[in-house]
Amino acid sequence: MPLYEFKCGTCGVFDVWRSLAESDQPATCPTCQTIGKRIFSAPAVSLSGSLPLRGGSEPDLIKKQQEPQQPKFQSQACGRPWMLNH
Q: Most buried residue among 8, 20, 67, 82 by CB atoms closer than 10 A?
């Protein structure tokens, strides 16, 4: 069930858990019982997926054991390099 934000004219912003079928219906303010209007805000999205975000720490340094070897390129014997294995 998603969490929707509503705004009451006297009390301010309040949140209500609702099903998708009830998303367009107005909600009553929990303090003064007046009808609030739904407001749209940006969704809370975690960029790291299921991993928790690391806060305030420096990244770990990893030392390379050896330099990577340069790839060895082979020249084409035929005059058509776009036609591989033909």
A: 8
